[in-house]
Amino acid sequence: MSKRPAYLKSKESSYWIMSALLAVLIWVVYGYAVSDIELQSLVDKSELKGRTFQGKVEDIFLPESKIAVYFMQEDETPLVAISFIFDKAGTAYDPQEKQGLAVMAAATLEQGADGISADKLREEMQLNGIKLSFEAEKDLLVGKITAPRQNIGYAAELLKLILAKPQFEKKYVEATRDQILQTLAAEQESSQTQLKLALNRRIYGDHPYGRNPLGTRSTVEQIKRSDLKQFAKDKLAKNNLYVGVAGSLDKTEAADLVNKIFGDLPDEAMVEDIAEVNIDWQQAVDVIQRNDGQKFAMFAAASTCRKCDDFYALYIANYLFGGAGLNSRINQEMREKEGLTYGGYSAMTIGDKSNLILAGFSSSKDKYDEAKKIFLQEWQKVREKGFDEAELQAAKDYLTASYNLRFASTIQIADMLAYMQKYDLGSDFLQKRNTYVESVTKEELNQAAGKYFNNNLLQAEIGNFE
Amino acid sequence: MKKFWLAILLVLSLELWQEAKAKGLATQEFYLDNGLQVIVIENHKAPIVEQMLFYKVGAVDEKPGQGGIAHLLEHLMFRGTAKVEGEQFNRALEKNGAESNAFTAQDVTAYYQLLDISRLELAMFLEADRMRNLEINDEAFATERDIVFEERKQRVDSNPTAIFAENVRAALWLGHPYGRPVTGQDKEIKNLTRDMAVDFYRTYYAPNNAILVLAGDIDLATAKRLVNKYYGNLKPSELIETQFDKLPGKYKNKIEMKLPGVKVGRMIKMFATPSLNFRPEMVYALEVLAEYLGGDESAPLYQTLVIDDDIAASVSTSYSGIARSYGEFVLSVVPKGEMTGDFEAKIENEWQKSLKRLNQKRLDMVKQKMLVDLVYLQDNPSVLAQIAGYVAAVGGEPDYWQNYAQNINSVTLEDITEAAKYLQEKAQSVVGVLYPEEKVSNE
Description:
The complex is a heterodimer.
Chain A: H1 6-32, H2 36-44, E1 58-62, E2 67-73, E3 79-87, H3 101-108, H4 118-127, E4 131-136, E5 140-148, H5 152-164, H6 170-187, H7 191-204, H8 217-222, H9 225-235, E6 241-247, H10 251-262, E7 286-289, E8 294-302, H11 311-323, H12 329-336, E9 344-349, E10 356-364, H13 368-385, H14 389-401, H15 410-422, H16 429-438, H17 442-452, E11 458-463
Parallel strand pairs in A: 2-6, 7-11
Antiparallel strand pairs in A: 1-2, 3-5, 3-6, 4-5, 8-10, 8-11, 9-10
Helix pairs in contact in A: 3-9, 5-10, 11-14, 11-17, 12-13, 13-17
Chain B: H1 6-25, E1 28-31, E2 37-42, E3 48-55, H2 69-76, H3 88-95, E4 99-104, E5 109-116, H4 120-132, H5 138-157, H6 160-173, H7 186-191, H8 194-204, E6 210-216, H9 220-231, E7 252-258, E8 266-273, H10 283-294, H11 300-308, E9 312-320, E10 327-335, H12 343-357, H13 360-372, H14 381-393, H15 400-409, H16 413-426, E11 429-435
Parallel strand pairs in B: 2-6, 7-11
Antiparallel strand pairs in B: 1-2, 3-5, 3-6, 4-5, 8-10, 8-11, 9-10
């Protein structure tokens, strides 16, 4: 061993002592408190690391019917799920005097088909484990059918008949009408529903997007079975159809199923486009007086389109502001620090004619003003100061780490495949999605934040303001 | 159109069930030395997993006057431990893409995370840590008490049907703890203290009072190794078992309410029934009975009251016997017009007629439908995790899922008659009627 100068030795020994002290300190700290880094090392070192989802999206084009399908084989569950979207067949496309038509059609489409009674049809589906549902969104009519793999062929036969020759059996149409009328009445019991409808009217005015999707009492009362049949005839066609198929079957089987179900639909839908949206952002707050245990607030601002360049930047901004549950800025400030609310939220909506950021919260009477003040301050802060690098990274971490959760269920996967087509995201979207998220820069994020978190913020509130 | 033979389909559905069992519905189970019960449900569709931790404690275990403490404690469980301080828990799970939440019920409290399998060890570390090391500081306690108060205001006070449901439950269960709201009453929430939360936590949060469910891309061997690693060192506690009073007898109560803001009438009939812990032999017959009477549009109550007689907008029956004390059988009706004096009698009449009409063929069809639907339980691992965990937490047998199809399948017409007779003659029940405040306006 070579001799070392004294100063080095002393330094070495003090280094040793320091290291020992540090080790003790780490032990104490570890025994007592764990750092974020130490928590994260549980992930980095995990033996469960490195698995990826194996499913692949396949693009099927059926030359005869010109139907395009996204398909994913998934054999873990012995089920097959088919999601299908008819574009421009949603509630906003109802004729003015027949508002509520799309909702009623969605609720009654499976009530009899081609001479088979509704009761028989239901029985057949039940005994074979076939689940069929339709839902009318603002722009779209969305259908879903699932069945155990042995029965999907039979399910397809039944669905084909339902789409081609729905009977809308009278007794079930009348029962559905009663239910919709009762629902319309019951909506008045709910402050949150009233607030949502009021804000919607304020945003869109007379535009079809401003309507109650259920219609009004008088329009619902006027809808006839012939209207429902006409609806099916006009709006269920091949050129406004998007299909997603997932489950335990192969590509050829998927193509055959789709051909069988949709192949004989009319080539072209008879749909008229609706007007463009023109929003007056300068309107005053809509205040609705109502005796209630709490006060509720909702806000709306313009958002970006699904395929726009700044979509992911704004998506992250919204996530950080009010989309991240308890960790979002508004929940940190209003809920976690002050206990002023059970929770606030914000979300982006996508529509053919309008895209919005919607946000809201509720508080009891004595805390509402403070909560609202904080909400508006946070909104302004996003616009003026944006987000920092650490926040951007946190959002990216969440969005990429949660990526695989979307594959939890076959039914969910089929849905996703159909919407990917509707929004023209491409069959390679799932491979690219995390890259889209990762590539957002702080500048892009804050540019979107500054642009969309602006002063054009429409507000509505409901509760006891007296 | 395909020919349909019931017998063939019955065989088919049992085959499907067998397949379901082989492919993941079969739950696997083991215990740690400290008493932690673990259920593993394999589903390898995607590299994700749901971790659910059920504690066999809920609102029913609260001391008098401390209503809401179980629920408040559930909130406080996200506020930090000696090791994982403050908001670190939420932050770490968020960073790792987890859907993380919890719920409190009468019988159980459950915490869960759905997350990428690569993040499971983190979630296990965090969940195990907060089982024994929770720290409740005064400030977090005060804020969280405000939050649960706001939660109650939002869920109940602004919602007349929730107020109605609370009162109906109270009228059915009388002094039994099932009659108290899980959130606690306003006054009770305001009076909850930090010491009560600490006491409740120390009494009930222990591995021998918990069930861990792992559902997703994990096999039994890996689960055993990791559960041991993260939960193995937790110390068990001496447990106190809550004793439930027997209901006083076969009271048939009735409660009528008129609440401001109500636009649509409702009628509800609730029965205190057998459960997995009370006359469990009747549970499956009650399940089939609920499905038969009012399970969907094809059910006789719907067909008569909604379609033929046109006096109701909707009607349904449901039953759950997954409970630590009694189960619940519920009939809900939304009347079409006003509820006249004989409305209840008409429903009772149809109920009786429906029972008389049930024959073997119809019974087989109802069972067939229930069995064939079981395949859907496999689709999303989170769904089965929740049901399997719940069953275990209320003390269901480990072979519950293995025997479920067989148990449904062996329900006979006599069993149904007996179950219906039990509801009629022995079960305590309540009829709740909610009248609309005024005539419905025209828009």
